[in-house]
């Protein structure tokens, strides 16, 4: 019931917000805020109430009802440590997304909140589904509201970006569908249920092909190089809330898909392909960082840092030992918080100065010290400053990877240098120097300070006390670890 | 008692946090008071701990616990970290007091103290950390503060660029250190300092030690990663004194001394440390000879003095290295602070040749600078610097690992030190006065200078005395004393006789040498052309993301196909009929052939 509620509340909230907007836009915003808060509070309550069950690694809550038995489709939702963490993140970032649109979105605000909350519903569904067809349904359902968010409320080049986003993820989704269908046929149990499909025996070649289909779909969403090029455009053109959701949550569905489906369903094939995907991850870390440095558009720059950080996720997952995988999960969380915050900042800058072009910014620290301070803070988080969550995450990924492949760990570690280069460049070009363009933006409002303050506090907290995150996901990652017994010792 | 350790490390962090949140709305007096009080509390606790120190003690709480990896946030006090803790808190406090007055007229006063507090906290974390990951946290933290404080006057592009350079160059070393941490973690299955110090070194001891050396070289501004330090002088003088002279830049020395057993396991790595130290001390001494910016002279001098510490480490003389760290912290902080008084008094002029004759006009700066300079030159018997430098030279002389050429370079280094130091003193304080004194030091500034002056003289108390038993060691003292006097004398002669320096400048080879030394022997030039520019060019060449070209190509191909197909849609029935017939013929042909 709780799981169904988690899906109904945001959807109903979206519809209600849309309807209310005819009378009062402000009320519509509050409805959306309440709905997202409810999601977060429910997830938090589950998290706080179940420490023992989390430790046992069982599913905390589960619903499993036949839906369309003729097709083998069941309404199977479940919550374990891994997706509980992601549901928490979803609730939080959805609140951030609503809050940061408060002033930015004036055009069709009701429809905007409908799209936003439908998107949140679909994301929650994708995280919770334990039936592959149901998962696919939610996976595709994420596409449409995101498309509209970019195409209607986006910036100058929004149509191009929206179509590009749609084509990439849609084609990725097709491959996922083919793999799901193939798996269904091979299992021959007449069911798309996760528990029925796991452990399906099949020829190695077929398993590899089917897994590649899944991986392709997930890699597009992650994104991994070389299928990342939709991301910079989508990020740059999306409204702030869209970028926050995109970076903080949509990308994470790709990583979640790998952890939940690709590896447990195809353990042998995953083992075979792990080195290649690790290499792609390490290459992505460096490639994204180098591209980020060269960008002159603030949002595009942050978008490429996402490519870089998601490289750490791919690398850590396929390094396959407990340390690296936990590091990858922590990257997922911390990147969501830090990059989400950077997009909020980019949105605030654009809203105030009318530009994202770094060459037209500069010297903002003097006029907007709070904005400057937060920009510095989150840039430091992005470059992996120890004491903040991203450091613990990246350190664990690299440490774990070192056992699986020292050269790849070293290559990815070079990303630590590159991240300093781009992060400091970002801060310097936007905040330092002389205010030659005589920009006079207002400093952050109390609402924005609250949003960024919460995100900053969370990053600091995770950096100094990451253990709750590890304890939450610990047991639900065992299937992944068992599938990939690479590199448990070094020397 | 050991709970006091928490307070030592936490007090500055709490100060920084308070200033970060409330600093903007605080009156300056309160912001300064918060900044100084937090470090003061730290110092008092450090003194209490030091007076009661009997044996190593540790406090910790959990941090990361994943699989076999268990890392705590833990602090450990032993003799080595004790030395660092005392120096950092004491010098830190004095510099905070100095800055609370000298920086009073600056914008961003509370921001300054926020960063300074953060620095002291990070530095103490670095020194007291009971495991390498926490040490790394402090290590990066001090790097961050160095960046923030070099770029404190953020409106100047030069300051910002220097700040970034410092962070990026040291981060290169930090990454090497991080890789060493990976190897150590997998080898020992822990990052705890105790286990690593007492355990058997890994097979790849040389590699690990060299990677650690890489980290140390970056942070301590040794060749080849030294280029950031001279530029770091763009920051305020108290910053240069605290971070870029007394404490942070010696972190590399601390790291190597801390992990000494890893280095002892590899003679090659020890040799590398000694060679880096020797080459750097000579190189930086030669560069310091010609600098015109008073702070750059001191920056190169710092690089050179840390070179001495590395030399000591390389021959296994840990004690001598730590001893020199302590005395150097006192006298170099003193020199920087007193140079700060000079710069402030000369309308922020840094060029020593635009100054002069300040002996009478600024007596406090003159006398304190003289004391610092004497200690830096290692003037025999009356300065602390003499005892520590003699300890290093003696160790190089007696140690198995020391070589004759290292000792020779060390001795030439003392000559150079004496020469560039006396040059600065002569040019700045003697001769005729060229500029009016625009600002006089206040009470707190004078207080900090006087305390540091006293420490620069008696800072050797408490350390083991020099043994002058063997005649060769007595010989060494005599030789180095003579060299120091020669250095002072030659500087005096060179600057009292105009025609000599003019002749040198007129001589083409001399002129070239001068320019080479002034530019720090072209390291910046070389790096800019061989590393920075090519990397920048690559990044900019690919700023539109070459991979995306493939997809735009696909889209373009699809569009081209579309326009080709569109050509057929003419709307004329004739054409469609012709197409039908043509198609029918092809099909008929295919069928017939089969």
Question: Could you walk me through the main structural features you see in this protein, from its secondary elements to its overall organization?
Answer:
The complex is a heterodimer of chains A (491) and B (594). With 491 residues, chain A is mainly α. Chain A has a domain at 266-491. Chain A is 76% helix and 3% strand. Chain A contains 21 helices and 2 strands. A two-stranded antiparallel sheet of chain A has the order 1-2. The longest helix of chain A has 32 residues, at 322-353. The model of chain A has no long low-confidence stretch (mean pLDDT 89). With 594 residues, chain B is mainly α. Among the domains of chain B are: 326-496, no CATH class; 544-593. Chain B has helices at residues 4-22, 28-51, 79-102, 109-128, 132-150, 157-188, 193-198, 205-219, 228-231, 237-246, 251-258, 260-264, 267-288, 294-314, 318-345, 358-361, 363-377, 384-398, 404-429, 443-458, 471-496, 498-506, 508-518, 523-541, 546-568, 573-593; strands at 57-66, 69-77. Chain B has a two-stranded antiparallel ribbon with strand order 1-2. In chain B, a hairpin with a 2-residue loop joins strand 1 (57-66) and strand 2 (69-77). The longest helix of chain B has 32 residues, at 157-188. Chain B starts with a helix and ends with a helix. At the A-B interface, helix 12, helix 14, helix 16, helix 17 and helix 18 of A face strand 1, helix 5, helix 6, helix 24 and helix 25 of B.
Q: What brief labels describe this structure?
A:
heterodimer; A: 491 residues; mainly alpha; two-stranded antiparallel sheet; 21 helices; globular; B: 594 residues; two-stranded antiparallel ribbon; 74% helix
Count all strands of chain A and give the number: 2
Task: Give the topology string of chain B: H per helix, E per strand.
Answer: HHEEHHHHHHHHHHHHHHHHHHHHHHHH
The order of strands across the largest sheet of chain B is: 1-2
Oligomer: heterodimer
Using the CA coordinates, give the radius of gyration of chain B.
Answer: 30 Å
* Contiguous runs where pLDDT drops below 50 for at least 5 residues of chain A: none
> What is the number of strand segments of chain B?
2
């Amino acid at each position: 019931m709780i799981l169904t509620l988690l899906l109904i509340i945001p959807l109903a909230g979206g519809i209600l917000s849309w309807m209310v907007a005819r009378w009062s836009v402000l009320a519509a915003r509050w409805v959306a805020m309440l709905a997202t808060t409810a999601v977060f509070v429910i997830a938090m309550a589950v998290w706080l109430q179940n420490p023992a069950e989390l430790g046992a690694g069982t599913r905390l809550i589960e619903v499993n009802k036949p839906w369309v038995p003729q097709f083998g489709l069941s309404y199977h939702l479940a919550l374990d440590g891994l997706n509980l963490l992601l549901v928490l993140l979803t609730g939080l970032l959805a609140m951030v997304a609503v809050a940061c649109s408060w002033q930015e979105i004036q055009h069709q605000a009701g429809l905007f909140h409908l799209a936003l909350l439908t998107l949140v519903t679909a994301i929650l569904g994708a995280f919770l589904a334990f039936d592959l067809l149901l998962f696919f349904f939610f996976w595709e359902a994420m596409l449409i509201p995101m498309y509209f968010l970019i195409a209607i409320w986006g910036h100058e080049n929004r149509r191009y970006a929206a179509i590009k986003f749609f084509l990439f993820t849609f084609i990725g989704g097709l491959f996922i569908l083919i793999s799901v269908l193939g798996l269904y046929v091979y299992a021959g149990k007449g069911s798309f249920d996760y528990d029925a499909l796991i452990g399906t025996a099949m020829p190695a070649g077929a398993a590899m092909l089917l897994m590649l289909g899944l991986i392709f779909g997930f890699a597009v969403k992650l994104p991994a190089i070389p299928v990342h090029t939709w991301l910079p455009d989508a990020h740059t053109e999306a409204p702030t809330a869209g970028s926050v959701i995109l970076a903080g949550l949509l990308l994470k569905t790709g990583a979640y898909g790998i952890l939940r489906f690709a590896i447990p369903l195809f353990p042998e094939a995953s083992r075979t392909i792990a080195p290649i995907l690790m290499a792609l991850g390490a290459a992505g870390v460096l490639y994204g960082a180098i591209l980020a440095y060269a960008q002159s558009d603030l949002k595009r720059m942050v978008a490429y840092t996402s490519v870089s950080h998601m490289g750490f996720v791919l690398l850590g997952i396929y390094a396959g030992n407990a340390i690296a995988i936990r590091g990858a999960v922590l990257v997922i969380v911390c990147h969501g918080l830090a990059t989400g915050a950077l997009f909020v900042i980019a949105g605030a800058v654009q809203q105030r100065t009318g530009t994202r072009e770094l060459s037209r910014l500069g010297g903002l620290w003097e006029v907007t010290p709070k904005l400057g301070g937060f920009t510095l803070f989150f840039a430091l988080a992005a470059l992996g400053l120890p004491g903040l969550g991203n450091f613990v995450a990246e350190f664990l990924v690299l440490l774990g990877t070192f056992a699986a492949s020292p050269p790849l760990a070293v290559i990815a570690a070079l990303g630590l240098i590159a991240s300093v280069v781009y992060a400091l460049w970002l801060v310097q070009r936007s905040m330092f120097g002389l205010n030659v363009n005589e920009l006079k933006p207002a400093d952050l409002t109390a609402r924005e300070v609250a949003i960024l303050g919460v995100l900053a506090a969370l990053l600091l907290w995770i950096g100094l006390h990451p253990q709750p995150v590890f304890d939450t996901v610990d047991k639900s990652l065992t299937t992944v670890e068992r599938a990939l017994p690479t590199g448990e010792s070094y020397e | 008692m050991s709970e006091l350790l928490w307070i030592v490390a936490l007090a500055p962090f709490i100060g920084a946090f308070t200033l970060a949140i409330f600093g903007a709305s605080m009156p300056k007096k309160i912001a300064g008071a918060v900044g100084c009080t937090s470090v003061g509390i730290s110092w008092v606790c450090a003194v209490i701990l030091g007076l009661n120190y009997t044996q190593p003690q540790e406090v910790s709480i959990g941090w990361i616990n994943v699989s076999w990896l268990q890392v705590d946030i833990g602090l450990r006090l032993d003799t080595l970290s004790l030395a660092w803790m005392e120096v950092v808190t004491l010098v830190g406090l004095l510099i905070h007091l100095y800055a609370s007055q000298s920086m009073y007229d600056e914008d961003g006063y509370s921001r300054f103290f926020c960063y300074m507090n953060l620095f002291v906290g990070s530095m103490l974390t670095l020194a007291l950390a009971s495991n390498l990951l926490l040490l790394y946290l402090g290590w990066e933290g001090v790097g961050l503060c160095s960046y923030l404080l070099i770029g404190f006057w953020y409106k100047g592009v030069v300051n910002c660029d220097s700040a970034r350079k410092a962070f990026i160059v040291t981060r290169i070393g930090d990454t090497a250190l991080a890789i060493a941490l990976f190897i150590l973690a997998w080898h020992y299955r822990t990052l705890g300092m105790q286990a690593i110090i007492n355990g058997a070194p890994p097979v790849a001891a040389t590699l690990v030690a060299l990677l650690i050396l890489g980290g140390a070289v970056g942070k301590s501004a040794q060749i080849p990663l030294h280029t950031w330090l001279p530029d770091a002088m763009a920051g305020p003088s108290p910053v240069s004194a605290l971070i870029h002279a007394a404490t942070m830049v010696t972190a590399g020395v601390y790291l190597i001394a801390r992990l000494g057993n890893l280095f002892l396991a590899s003679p090659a790595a020890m040799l590398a440390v000694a060679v880096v130290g020797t080459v750097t001390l000579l190189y930086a001494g030669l560069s310091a000879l010609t600098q015109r910016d008073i702070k750059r002279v001191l920056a190169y001098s710092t690089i050179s003095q840390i070179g001495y510490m590395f030399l000591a480490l390389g021959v296994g003389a840990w004690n001598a290295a730590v001893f020199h760290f302590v005395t150097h912290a006192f006298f170099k902080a003193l020199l920087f602070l007193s140079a700060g008084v000079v710069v402030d008094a000369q309308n922020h002029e840094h060029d020593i040749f635009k100054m002069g004759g300040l002996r009478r006009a600024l007596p406090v700066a003159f006398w304190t600078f003289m004391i610092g300079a004497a200690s830096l030159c290692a003037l025999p018997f009356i300065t602390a610097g003499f005892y520590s430098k003699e300890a290093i030279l003696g160790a190089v002389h007696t140690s198995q690992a020391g070589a004759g050429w290292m000792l020779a370079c060390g001795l030439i280094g003392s000559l150079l030190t004496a020469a560039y130091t006396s040059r600065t003193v002569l040019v700045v304080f003697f001769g005729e006065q060229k500029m009016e004194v625009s600002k006089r030091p206040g009470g707190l500034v004078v207080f900090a200078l006087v305390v540091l002056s006293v420490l620069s003289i008696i800072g050797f108390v408490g350390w083991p005395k020099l043994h002058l038993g063997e005649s060769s060691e007595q010989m060494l003292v005599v030789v180095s004393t003579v060299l120091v006097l020669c250095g002072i004398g030659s500087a005096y002669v060179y600057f009292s006789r105009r025609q000599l320096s003019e002749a040198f400048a007129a001589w083409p080879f001399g002129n070239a040498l001068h320019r080479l030394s002034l530019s720090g022997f072209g390291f910046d030039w070389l790096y800019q052309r061989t590393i920075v520019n090519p990397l920048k060019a690559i990044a900019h060449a690919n700023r539109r993301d070459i991979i995306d070209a493939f997809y735009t190509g696909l889209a373009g191909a699809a569009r081209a196909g579309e326009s080709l197909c569109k050509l057929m849609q003419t709307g004329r029935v004739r054409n469609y009929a012709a197409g039908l017939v043509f198609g029918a013929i092809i099909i008929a042909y295919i069928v017939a052939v089969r």
